Amino acid sequence: MSHHRLSADSMTARTTASQWRAAWSLFPYVWQYKNRVIAAFGLLLCAKVANVSVPLVLKGIVDHLEHPGVADASVNLVLPLALIVLYGLLRFGNTAFTELRDALFARVLQRAMRGVIHDVFQHLHAQSLRFHLERRTGGLAVDIERGARSIRFLINFTLFNIGPTLLEILMVAGVLFVKYDPWFGAITLMTLAVYIAFTVLITNWRLQHRRAMNEADASANSRAVDSLLNYETVKYFNNEQYEADRLKADLRRAEDASVQSEISLAWLNGGQSFIIALGVTAMMGLAAQGVANKSMTLGDLVLVNAYLIQLFIPLNFLGTVYREIRNALTDMEKLFGLLHKPPEITDAADARTLAASKGEVRFEHVSFAYDPRRPILHDVSFTIPAGRKLAVVGASGAGKSTLSRLLFRFFDVTGGAIRVDGQDIRQVTQASLRKSIGIVPQDTVLFNDSLYHNIAYGRPDASREEVLEAARAAHLDRFIEGLPDGYDSMVGERGLKLSGGEKQRVAIARAILKNPPILVFDEATSSLDSGTEQAIQNELTRISENRTTLVIAHRLSTVVDADEILVLENGRIVERGNHAALLAEDGRYAAMWRLQLREEKNDLAA
Length: 606
Known about the structure:
Strand order of the largest sheet: 6-7-8-3-9-10
Oligomer: single chain
Order of helices and strands: HHHHHHHHHHEEEHEEHEHHHHEHEEEHH
CATH architecture of the largest domain: Up-down Bundle
CATH topology of the largest domain: ABC transporter transmembrane region fold
Strand content: 5-15%
Number of helices: 19
């Protein structure tokens, strides 16, 4: 039992430390505007001095009205009027200083929040493909959105609520200690200490319910986003009710965690109110006794009562703020956790720009495994001479697409090396490497934006004429001009409004616009019908002229013109040669060729 408790305590301590590290990570984003921050704190101090002075002036007014003490009626009138004016000025001063502080700090808050979100977004794009394959986009979006909200809350309330309230309490306790019975100050500080200890203890206990609620909420969001992104698949299999039931189960878990969170909140609020009630009762009892035995005036009673109102209303709010700050820290911990996660693939310290003058690609004894327990490639070696075309064929799972991922350096090889014009791609910058390679993938995913934007994505700084020329070269111009909105036509989420052939032509236009020395066709026509495939294939052949080209193919008819064909099986090259030589060998390639001819013949007959 003690072991479990120790383990839970150490886990809580680690979580708390991690949360405060996340909060500290926010400091540089705020401190870069230190002049504004210092000025805001100056205004905050002025506001608190004004607020603490209000009950002192109020006491003077009450005491003077109760015991005028001067025979001259005009003096009796002027003095309380002056105090009343001062009272009004201090009240206004408190509000004015606070509003000025908020106006001055607004830009700091917005820029800090914007800076963090920008850096997180940039960092996520720097992460490896493995990171994104293992994460759910919906859950990631929820973490970022919650984290952004928590930054605003944390900066606002930590700097301008908790700190100032504690400062005000200490100032008030100081006034009470100096002017009155030390018990007034002692009761104030004791109430504060018990209140804070109780709030911290119960809030930390409540965090487990908050985390459970967040996780269930993120899971429900992820499932909903995933289901909506794949709505066609849901409909194909008539699984609308199945998806709704899965979401319902997630929502039920979120509901249970939320109810537990609310119940624990009721306990927290009740306990806080009880502690404040005890402190208020003790102080008012002490003040009433002082007035009764003439050691305190009626003005002193009013002052004590005013301080109690000034202190314990924000103190009650302080409990809520601390609770929300812990919640915000929990949310922000995830956001900064994303920011602090080091990318798997990074540029070497002395990485230089790739000089791809010719575009020769060489795989030297390359081995690779996504998981060490399951190797994908074994000692793969080949060279694609500059301006030549090399094709890789083989069954699904043979490791064909892994070759393109390694060439783009989405992953690093676990053995051997990949060189472009003799340069190891691990020793050059990723940006310069990827700038030199264009790809036409099997499934072209488009942004939910205009056709023009999607074509221009190949080179965003290209002129409009260059974009239109790329569209013409990919034979997209007639299709686009036939649309009511032309190049401004929206393609829908993931390009769902376009056919497979139209999407592939957009991918070709992007590659033409990018104009790289190296091209990769990753099963670029395997999902198209025969007629469309032939048209796209002709365009691929045309754009690959005089470029180093790696073709990953499923259909052998698309690679007959390749200078060299590799047959990959279980991550190993088992045959190599051109189309005629491989047919003459009468090995695996010849068997695959005969099988595909037979299938095409059957399709025609059908």
